[in-house]
Each structure stands twice: as C-alpha cells, then as structure tokens.
C-alpha cells in the first residue's frame, strides 16, 4: 500500500467566543470542528461577556462546561482555557496553532486586537497569530458601524487578519436559523482550508452539466 509522502496536516484551531450577538454561530462552529477528523485540537476560550450573551440567546449558563453543553457530549480534542489565563499554550508563538477564529467578534475585542492590547487570552492569542503570520479570522458583528469600528477593521486587516462579518447568506434558501449559521460556518472553515462536505456552493449544478 502506498504511504503518502506527507500525512495530512492535523489542524490545531483556536475558537474564541466574545460578547457580540451570534451565539448560534459559535455553537455550530464548535460542532463542525468537533466532528471534523482533520481537526486534532480545539482550543476554546469564551470572554465574560460571551457567557452573558450565551445565556441571553441560547439559555445556556455555566463557564467550565459551556463547550460540552454546546456539543451535548464530551469531546476529547477540546481544550478549554479561561480568558484570564495569559499563560495558556495559545498565548505563545512557540505553540503551533493552525488558525484562530473569533466568532462572534465584538467591537470591543476587535478594538483590542487591532490596537495590540493583548490584555487577556483572546487578545493575546490573536496578537500571536498576527505576529506569527498565522490565519486570524475575525467574525465581527455590529450594526451600524461607527467610524472607530471601521478604522479598527481596517487596522486589523492591514495587520493580517481576515474581517469576516457574521452576515448570513440568503441565496442558499436556508430553512432555519441553524441552517443559516451552518452555511456561514462552512464559509469560514473553507477560508482556513477546511472545506466542509455538504456545504452549499453557488454554481455547483452548472459544473455537473459541463
Ligand atoms: C445580548 C447582548 C448582545 C450584544 N451584542 C453585541 C454585538 O452584536 N456587537 C458588539 O460589538 N457588542 C455587543 N454586545 C456588547 C458586548 O458584549 C460588550 O461590548 C462587551 O464589553 C464585549 O466584551 P468582549 O469583547 O470581551 O466579549 C452585546 C451585549 C449583550 C448583553
């Protein structure tokens, strides 16, 4: 049997959840990462405000077992970190993270990342991604944007982050908010090199007819 020269890379992903609206997106992202065999580790960090928004939007409370509650079962590849733990693995550039996703990303967290504050684990881990030139996806959510938000998005993009607004698509005719969130999550994962089976692709029919 032929042995592949290079085994497929194991993806080591940080998922940071902050206090913007959109807990459902975070829940769907966590589920997608947990069920993706290419992902070997999920580093999960939630800000204080994220916990508040989870309680508001999904009726979920708790800090330590939030990720397990979202998944509905234990997940061996999950590593939970407190937002205050600036000594966690992902706070160092020597720890090999493949990509970091902030979903949803509040304007407060965007501001901290764009201006290099690095004062909690989410800000620091994002700062590390930027300095190590690793993919950092900021799924910002606010409406309308003020000029400070717009400037901070530009700053973060110039430093190497992808601004990936948490805006759902309608052209795929989602039948539920879950389906809407899943399609958004699929787009984010495709962006970091993890295309998902079953993801909606505009023009897929066209290719079949070719
Ligand atoms: C229910 C709820 C929804 C919120 N939605 C947003 C939002 O969509 N975007 C945003 O930037 N902030 C939003 N906020 C405010 C943030 O949670 C707040 O600015 C917080 O300080 C952000 O902290 P963090 O970035 O550390 O998570 C919301 C707050 C609550 C309670």
Describe the structure.
- Its EC number is 2.5.1.129.
- The chain has 210 residues and is α/β, with parallel strands linked by helices.
- The chain has eight helices and six strands; from the N terminus they run βαβααββααβαβαα.
- The protein has a six-stranded parallel β-sheet, sandwiched between helices.
- The mean pLDDT is 93.
- The structure holds flavin mononucleotide.
- Residues 18-21, 47, 49-50, 52-53, 56, 106-109, 141-142 line the site of flavin mononucleotide.
Question: How many distinct folded domains?
Answer: 1
How far apart are the termini?
34 Å
Strand element count: 6
Helical percentage: 25-40%
For the residues shown, what is the average pLDDT?
93
- The named CATH superfamily: Flavin prenyltransferase-like
Overall shape: it is globular
Unreliable runs: none
Bound molecules: flavin mononucleotide
Instruction: Specify the structural class.
Output: alpha/beta
The helix tally amounts to 8
What is the fold-level CATH name, i.e. the topology? Rossmann fold
Strand order of the largest sheet: 3-2-1-4-5-6
Proportion of residues in extended strands: 15-25%
CATH architecture: 3-Layer(aba) Sandwich
